Amino acid sequence: MNDDTPRVLIVGAGPAGTRAAEALVAHGVAPIVVDEGARSGGQIYRRPPAGFTRPAAALYGFEARKAQAVHATLDGLRERIDYRPNTLIWNIEGGVAQALGPDGIERIRFDALILATGAMDRVIPFPGWTLPGVFTMGGSQVALKAQGCAIGDPVVFMGTGPLLYLVAYQYVHAGARVAAVLDTSHLSQAIPVFPGLLWGGRTFAKGLWYMTWLRAAGIPVRGGITPVAAEGQSALEAVRYRDRRGREHRIACTGLGIGYSVKSEVQLAELAGCEMAFDPLAQQWLPQADVDGRAIEGSVYLAGDGAGVAGADAAEVRGRLAALALLADKDIATDRASQARLRAKLRRIMRFRNALERALPVPFHLARTLPDETVICRCEAITAGDIREGRALAPAEMNRAKAFTRVGMGRCQGRVCGPAAAQILAAARGCAVEDVGRLRGQAPVKPLSIRAGAEAAVEDRSRAASI
Amino acid sequence: MSESRTDVVIVGGGLVGCAAALHLRSRGASVAVVEKNQLGAAASGVNFGGVRRNGRKLAELPIAARALAIWKRLPELVGSDCEYEITGNIKVARTDEHMDQIAAHAEAQAEYGVEVEMLGRNTLRDRYPWLGESALGAAYCATDGQANPRLVGPAFARAARAAGAMMVEHDGAQRVERDGSGFVVETESGRTLRGDTLINSSGAWGGRLAAQFGEPVEIWPMEPQMIVTEPAPYFMVPVLAVVGGDVYARQIPRGNVIFGGRSGTADLDVGFGKVHAEESLTTLARTIEIIPRIADLAVIRFWSGVEGCTEDHLPVLCPSRTTPGLVHAFGFSGHGFCLGPASGAVAAELALDGRSETPIEGFDIGRFDSP
Q: What is the distance between the alpha carbons of residues A17 and A318, in angstroms, rounded to a whole number?
């Protein structure tokens, strides 16, 4: 590599990061790929730890081939890229990413950055959601894929979005007992956007297939439900919900997987200086970029679900597009025709995604009307009532609400509780959710070991002394 | 656009400005506060949260004593204790020379009624087994304490508003001028506020406003780099400070340890503090030496804010030398949180009476005049 080759850092080794790395290498640019996971694949194509023997078909269902292709691609690149698993980028400041890996803190200087940070579970709290035995959908998947166990026996899955049926299917397939699948959406909501859903072709068919498969397997699947509460003395014993006619039901279970699709992981994009704007469909502030993922020309590019959730197929396309945009901005010749094809493919996927989001709408409104005593911020034990009253201080926006009530002040720094808190605050103030703003992103994006931080500083000082 | 006329207009709605407004209302004066951002959110809201006299510069001790009396009355004054607690303060020395320094200072501050207990190495270790080997001795002041900075400024703002003060938020003063025998302030949104007297409590930006009235004061904007850990069992009751100032720390009963030491330099035109993580890593290393057990905790957040420092690290709190009716109360150099409630009261007295019973000799703006 000559000296003019840009030093590119890719954050994330899921489908987007992997395809971005592949495209860069194909153009003679060897990136640094940093990933929090022990093995590549990201969340959706999470690989089991080495030594696990369940076949890909059991782990990934219909997506097995895609997952394997993504895994094989990164494995194939490993000799040509600087791949750093088990490593968290906890801050980005002035062209340097601060990483915490197995050997401690490292500063990674970069000329350009591709953020493929992916998504995390979107949580809409409800009474009892903090009981042991209640998991997110992602957590339920991790238990199955990385730990080879179920979250309970029997298990109920509740929420909405494509993952609901996929995870339930994976559980049943793995031999777990699933007592019910409870969907806050209802198929009737899908009819008006049906033409859009057809754009998804096979993807939509697969969703229906999982649902049908579950029904055929004798699993009760209920649509249009409203969560009431998770119940139990010291751990989960049952879940209560209301059906479409308003009748309440109770299902005994020791594991409850809840999920309302996923939300983008945006903290690093914010620290990297991306402009943030409110997305009404996701009800989230998202970093802004053009169709190719160009957020700050020449320096910051976004790919995959971190720049707005569009799923794994889109992530692969967006990873390639971001890499091509970066290369073009660095005056490295790329194939315009393949770029055009990728853009067209992304447009098709996005049309389907938009329809899907409308067909399976996230019930954000559920947070707005939660009982006062419902815990919203579990780190700080802050309830919906605390946020509404602001402890009698009338906060006008989220950072003020955080200062007054401590909501979002714990380990997650609002990544989990922030969106629900914003809904509650907006409802209490009678304003739109975007009008209460967002919790400012601040380093470290995830908790940082003080020992590791101190060691990095000590090392630097001794180095400075020896110069 | 709206126009108002009050006895006093206050530019800068931090803790000092809001406390001044509350004090003015208690004296029956009408008052308007203009704040470009959120009330009580800049230096007032992002600082460390120490409320102490121990180790403070002697010139600040009289006003600190008055402040302490106000801190104790917070529930009655602003409806909340703002998590103010008298937890004590230990100023730790790591060298014999530093030990001599705090001993000498202990004698000097005793003249101002600040009683401290000098602790030798063994006593220190017995009382605070969590201290590291490098702690040689300390001055312990039982009357010092801490409070939650996020709550205090807004609480004064709310109390001032409830008492009838006009509180203008998110609308900075764009033009401040002499108007006959009084002052006129025009805000960004086009509001006009007239007042007989004007208090300049605009913190790090106070020097700019003073310069408009022919009294330039150089202000060095600082960004204290603050660190907060995940909650840990409550082990550290007093606030800790280390001679040399490169580590200060406190733990709240909730369990989080809040600490800092290093500062970045700020850009006043940016208007908010930036986190410089490298500075904080250095603070982590230095703090581990003095509180070894925090090595096992994780940092959950860094934050920063903007504070304005003067050349001698003392505030400017005095009547203007050039302009009758103008009162300065800015440049608190990182000392404005503890002193804030009393500084507001003094500024209010200067605005109404032209003088205050509280000694403020060291804070006159004329001290920066070149000879």
A: 9
Report the mean per-residue pLDDT for chain A.
Answer: 90
Q: How far apart are CA A334 and CA A23, in angstroms?
A: 10
User: In which band, very low, low, confident or very high, does the pLDDT at A3 lie, cut at 50, 70 and 90?
Assistant: low
| pLDDT at A46 (0 to 100) | 86
For residue A383, what are the CA distances in angstroms to A376, A422, B177, B335? Answer: 5, 13, 48, 35
- How much of chain A exceeds pLDDT 90, in percent? 75
Mean pLDDT for the stretch of residues A94-105: 95
Q: A385-400, pLDDT tens digit by residue?
A: 999 986 555 678 899 9
Instruction: Among 3.40.1190.10, 3.40.50.300, 3.50.50.60, 1.10.10.10, name the CATH number for the domain at A123-260.
Output: 3.50.50.60
Chain A residue numbers touching B276 (CB-CB < 8 A): 93
Parts of chain A belonging to CATH 3.50.50.60: 8-120+263-332, 123-260
How far does Cα B138 stand from its chain's mean position? 24
> What pLDDT score does A357 carry?
79
Distance (Å, rounded) from C-alpha A399 to C-alpha A407?
A: 9
CB contact under 8 A, B281 and A454: yes
- Rama region for A463: left / alpha / beta (φ>0; ψ in -120 to 50; rest): alpha
What fold does the segment set A8-120+263-332 form as a domain?
FAD/NAD(P)-binding domain (3.50.50)
Residue B301 contacts A, CB cutoff 8 Å: yes
Residue A329's Cβ-count burial label (10 Å; 0-12, 13-18, 19+) is middle
What is the H or E stretch that residue A121 is in? strand A119-121
Compute how many other C-beta atoms are within 10 angstroms of the C-beta atom of residue B75: 12
CB distance B301–A457 less than 8 Å?
Answer: no
- Residue A461 scores a pLDDT above 60: no
CB contact at 8 A, A154 and A295: no
- Tell me: pLDDT of A205 over 80: no
Interface test with A, best of B230, B251, B278 (most A CBs within 10 A): B278
B270 in contact with A, Cβ within 8 Å = no
Domains in chain B with CATH codes = 3-49+150-217+312-368 (3.50.50.60), 89-142+224-304 (3.30.9.10)
| Helices (H), ranges, A363-445 | 365-368, 384-389, 398-405, 418-429
> Which chain B residue's Cα is nearest to A413?
B300
Q: Are A202 and A192 in contact (CB under 8 A)?
A: no
Flag whether residue A410 sits within 8 Å of chain B, measured between CB atoms: yes
User: Residue A89: which pLDDT band, with cuts at 50, 70 and 90?
Assistant: very high
Q: With a cut of 70, which residues of chain B have pLDDT below it?
A: 1, 370-371
Distance between B246 CA and the closest CA of chain A, angstroms: 14
Best of B80, B170, B267, B284 to substitute, by most chain A Cβ atoms within 10 angstroms, is B284
Report the distance separating Cα B192 and Cα B5, nearest Å. 9
DSSP assignment of A204-259 equals HHHHHHHHHHHHHTT--EEES-EEEEEE-SSS--EEEEE-TTS-EEEEE-SEEEEE
Query: What is the pLDDT at residue B141?
Result: 98
Interface touch B281/A457, C-beta < 8 Å: yes
